Amino acid sequence: MKGINKFRIIKNFLKFISSIILIVFCFESYCQERFVNVEGQKFRIKTFGAGEKTVLFESGITDSLEAWGSLPDTIARYSRVFLYDRADIGKSDTSRQVRTIPNIVNELHNILKVADVHPPYIIVAHSFGASISRYFSSQYPDQVKGLLLLDPMADAYLKHLSKSDLKAYQEFVGKIQNSRQPRYRKEEDQTFPNLAYMKDLTIRRDLPTILVSVIHRKGDDYPTYQKEIISGFCNAIQVILEGTHYVHRDNPDLVIKYIKDLLMK
What we know:
This protein is an alpha/beta fold. It has helices at residues 2-31, 71-75, 101-114, 128-139, 155-159, 163-178, 182-188, 222-226, 247-250, 252-264; strands at 33-38, 41-48, 54-58, 80-84, 121-126, 144-150, 209-215, 236-242. It folds into two domains: 1-31; 35-264, 3-Layer(aba) Sandwich (Rossmann fold), CATH 3.40.50. It has ten helices and eight strands. It starts with a helix and ends with a helix.
């Protein structure tokens, strides 16, 4: 009986210690969420982890930093991590500028400076976030050391549409946009105008890049157009999976592997 009681005491003690560690970990993660002031405008950011490189997460259109789930927490074991809400999204202030990609990239660059988050960066970008990240890489080539593009927007896709198909596509996107909250529409309203900024980007051709495409349905040829994003790159690969648009939720372990691969380069 004494042996059993001793075992229970030790077991309960270990449970208590585990609970304390979990509480401390959660508290530290929460404390890393803060606001930075850029020219009188507040942006919500989250920074944690440590390392020579910073893994910067760029969310898809109208997505807040919560869209990444626990993925950044895992990456923080290996590197410093940075997430943020763009203007009009999540807990950040409403925008003061038209949501063009150059304006968004300029805001991001200023946020990083004010938050004291230094390069080099490995950028993990989803959907529309990939367009932002590609433009950022063209503007600040010495600061970006790797790109992981998750089911990115393919500007080449629209170039191949007929006028009637393009009109139908724009109407389809318009219906989705009109169903959103007004503050989110500012970013979505620039979907088509922003395509102009994707032309003739001067991104380093040797930049380590992993492009993850997703086949959403049988006969889906969108990955073919996505591949044009890395055309001419000498240190890039395309991976094609099946699943939903949120590939980082469907395949978190694989995404973690790709991030670690880029950190090692």
